[in-house]
Amino acid sequence: MVSVLVDACGWVSLIDAGLNLDISLNEVVGKADLKITTGVREELDSLSESRSGLLLDLLYRRSEVVDSKENHTDDALLALAIQNRWPVLTVDRVLKKRLVEGGCSYIEVTSGPSLRMVES
Fold first, then answer.
1. Cα 29 from Cα 19, distance rounded (Å)
2. Taking CA 8 as the corner, what is the angle to CA 26 and CA 96, rounded to the nearest 5 degrees?
3. Residue 103 DSSP one-character state
4. CATH number for the domain harbouring residue 62
5. How far apart, in whole angstroms, are the C-alpha atoms of residue 32 and residue 4?
6. Domain count along the chain
7. Residue 10 — φ and ψ, nearest 5°?
8. Dihedral of CA 38/41/43/45: which sign?
C-alpha cells in the first residue's frame, strides 16, 4: 500500500473531474493509503461552506490526519513528502515545482480526465 498526501486543490480537481478515487489511484500507485494535514482539512472545510459536492465525508473516512511542524499547508505537505517519500495529489503549480525541486513525486489530474504520477 502506498501512502498519498492529498492537497485541497488536488481533491477538488479529482472530484470536479468525476474520477473514481479507488480506480484512479489504483491505476497510478496501486492501493492507496490517504493522508491529509490539518491545514488541508481546514482549507476543505472552509471551501465546503460555499461549495457542495466535495465528498468530504468520503475523504475524511478514508484518510488519516498527519501532523507537521510546518504552519503553512504547502510547507507541511512538502516536509512530509520529503520525510516519508509520499507522493502528493495536487494541481498547484507552485507546490508541484517545489516538490520536484525537493526530489518528490506528485500525482496530478490530467485533462483526460485521469491521474498521472510525475516522479522526480
1. 15
2. 75
3. T
4. 3.40.50.1010
5. 6
6. 1
7. -65, -40
8. negative
Provide the sign of the torsion angle of the four alpha carbons 28, 62, 89, 35, taken in this order: negative
Q: pTM for the whole thing?
A: 0.95
Closest by alpha carbon to 108, among 6, 2, 36?
6
Q: Is 92 helix (H, G, I), strand (E, B) or coil?
A: coil
Residue from 60, 78, 61, 56 nearest 69 by CA: 78
Q: Which residue has the cell 498521472?
A: 116
C-alpha cell at 115: 491521474
Determine the residue type at 46: S
Q: Could you report the per-residue pLDDT of 34-92, keeping only the tens digit for each?
A: 999 999 999 999 999 999 999 999 999 999 999 999 989 999 999 999 999 999 999 99
Find where cell 489504483 sits: 26
Place of cell 508541484: 96
Q: Which domain holds residue 99?
A: 2-118
